[in-house]
Amino acid sequence: MLLSGATYVLMETMRRVALEGTQLARAQVGTIRLKLLKIGAVIVRSTRRIRVMLSSAFPYQELFEQVELALRT
Fold this sequence. Notes:
The structure is a single chain. By secondary structure, this protein is of the alpha+beta class. It is 51% helix and 14% strand. Strand 1 and strand 2 form a beta hairpin. It is globular and about 35 Å long.
């Protein structure tokens, strides 16, 4: 129950902060998860870093980059 609550708070914060002014600003949690978080990726682990390589054919690539930039700041 605690993990579900924490996930909901995280998704709500992402919607409020990072998705403001985008097409997913008023989307439900399931829609955000489906369109932004369920992405095919290859994970390469080396000694010093972990690299995540996302698909170049991802249709919401620009929106994903916008959300990433908003969450970094």
